[in-house]
Amino acid sequence: MMHPHVKIISFMVVLGLIVSGFLVGMDLLTRDRIERNQAYRLQAAILAANDYDFTIGNFAEVFEANIDTIETDEITFYVDQDSGNISFVIEGGGVWGPITAVMTLEPDFRTIVAMRVLSQEETPGLGGVVAEADYLAKYVGVILDPETGINITHNPTGADNEVDAITGGTRTSASFEWMINQRYQTAKQVWEDRGGDDE
Amino acid sequence: MIKLIRMKYTKWYNIMREGLSRNNPILIAVLGICSALAITNRVDNAIAMGIGVTFVIIASSATVSLIRQFIPGRVRMVTYMAIISTFVIAVQMFMEGFLPDIAEELGPYVGLIITNCIVMGRAEAFASKNPVKYTVIDGLANGLGYLFVLVSIAVVREALAFGTILDMRVMPSTWVNWTVMAIAPGGFFILGLYIWIMRSMTKNYETQG
């Protein structure tokens, strides 16, 4: 008869080996798909901003063929070879959790071509509107002010850098405005320091 | 007809009824309501979460039942935890790999199935004492009981909060969305109503007379 303590320890060791073996197997099965899905979120947002046709099957090739990736210490730029549009990731804290988005600018580095939210955890129906295509369409054509950036406001005056704030999502709007401006200033600085898009 | 009457006395029928109504994990036992409040503002999330939880209950209960003779009494809780979390991580990997949009919507709640009291509760109360075949039925009944409640809450909440059910418009275009239904307090209201109705129907009261 095995000593009860030895029995407990050997049981836990065997259990640990079996469950970790199972999880390693699951990881092998799903790892590639999960990596591809994560890459898809970002690359699909950039391709769509630049009006490319693609599917989940070929997005990586389309991206590779048309978009230049310029990595710097602080920020990674994704430049469309045809139009020269520049995309980069903006991120920051929302009301409930982090918000990440991709902003695409014209080569003047001021006019917004597209804005896409990749992930957010805001209140559905209130702040969560920030991720909806109808709302984000309002950012197209907005011209960022080189000094103050974007102005997300409930009381627009008609200036070029204004976007309507989300009804019932004032704090999300404020967070979103802050993160866009913060990231825009950093990106602009880095972009100008390296003298624009010349390799 | 005779068959139907006989069915009422079979063990699996009773296990099924316990999980779905008389001992419904959410409405009667009030277990697992964290996720029931958090993700029931849309029907598709409720369905995905319900299926995920059902799978985890069945798989972990069946595993616990299978090895119940070998589990040393003192470490049985640790054993349940290891088995449950393994299946939850597997579900999470599967969703991120094959259903990335739903995984994104459910956010941290898939991982939190680990702490869903229903799963642990069934392992301890049922699976550790019963053979695998009944454990599977019990897991299915409790999972479906959970799924059923989640979907019934979500149908009401999504309709009132967004005017839709499964993204199909059900409310007139003049409908003003009830924002409170989109956030957790809305879940409390609907869940409270359901618990009241269910307990009145099954005459399940905490105190006598």
Could you walk me through the main structural features you see in this protein, from its secondary elements to its overall organization?
The complex is a heterodimer of chains A (199) and B (209). Chain A is α+β, with helices and mostly antiparallel strands. Chain A has helices at 4-49, 59-66, 133-136, 170-193; strands at 67-71, 76-80, 86-93, 98-105, 112-119, 151-153, 162-164. Chain A has a domain at 68-193. In chain A, the strands form two sheets. Chain A has a five-stranded antiparallel sheet with strand order 1-2-3-4-5, sandwiched between helices. In chain A, β1 (67-71) and β2 form a beta hairpin. In chain A, α1 (4-49) packs across α2 (59-66). Chain A is elongated and about 85 Å long. The model of chain A has no long low-confidence stretch (mean pLDDT 91). Chain B has 209 residues and is mostly helical. Chain B has one domain. Chain B is built from ten helices and two strands; from the N terminus they run ααααααααββαα. Chain B has helices at 2-7, 11-22, 33-38, 43-66, 76-98, 100-106, 117-127, 132-162, 179-182, 184-202; strands at residues 164-165, 168-169. In chain B, strands 1-2 form a two-stranded antiparallel sheet. In chain B, β1 (164-165) and β2 form a beta hairpin. The interface between A and B is medium-sized, with 28 and 28 residues.
